[in-house]
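User: My instructor asked us to take a sequence, write out its structure as tokens, and then describe one feature of it. I'm not sure where to start. Here is the sequence I was given:
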Amino acid sequence: MTTTLLRTAAELHGRTRAGRRAVVMTMGALHEGHATLIRTARGIAGPDGEVVVTVFVNPLQFGEGEDLDRYPRTLDADIELAGQSGADVVFAPSVDEVYPGGEPEVRITAGPMGERLEGSSRPGHFDGMLTVVAKLLHLTRPDLALYGQKDAQQLALIRRMVRDLNFGVEIVGVPTVREEDGLALSSRNRFLSAAERRTALALSGALFAGQDRHAAQEALRARAREVPATRARAEALSAIGESRAAADTHAVATAVPGGPAAVRAAARQVLDEAARLDPPLALDYLALVDPSDFTEIGDDFTGDAVLAVAARVGATRLIDNIPLTFGSFGAAS
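Assistant: Let's start with the prediction itself. The structure tokens for your sequence are:
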């Protein structure tokens, strides 16, 4: 389909709108993860709606020593991929269009939730992110906006901002897209050498290890509920015949549902091994958090959670996460 490139909000506001407008915000260097967002937006907006893809490298999101100048800028390729994925418009404003008169004196603050994990590692990052998201929502005037779940803390903060500040827009989260080897798609993956990429696979490997441990524990506990709470319970669990049950039958029989500590330990083991590789993985954080506020969950937690990791391989910093549900007596989501 034909995709129109627009540079100013006035041009965008001048377009005739029939159906709903869906916006996908990006910093460019589009890949299959972005394409999935755009295709999802197209499906939600429908044939009468409009899909707008923003391309803007936001300087407020980059702290001192981060890769603003190094961040890839590939607008021609971005327009082509956006069009192939179903976008009607690529809105690529200049810095002056978004921040007339220079960096804004008044900004949105992410509050305590934005000071944890990514916020602790990148001070001011989420303030800059929320400020530009708020501005782009005003500039594009969408009915809904779509964001990837790979940036789980970002998505949670945008949802909180929209709710707390009464933005009239629907926020849609789209599952993480991965390459065949499990690495989460990111514009920064292109900076990895072949050896660095092999090390980087430990991020998704750690998450999958935690997910596997969680799923095994939940399955065992579902069966354990059918066994009378007597001294025979441990023997009954051993008789199930599952390899993970034999590892520590007593712990499996008595631990609280879901075993957050065991999930963390399984993921940590993979990351510790990756720290001894060449090149090594330098862990920033591994966290198992409540997605409502990104605080660490306790061993008695039930409900939805996010297992998140951030690490540096060489000069490239990567993040990843997966959702889990504790206390459901079923497999991870």
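For the description part of your assignment, you could build on this observation: The two ends are 35 Å apart (CA to CA). Try explaining in your own words what that tells you about the chain.
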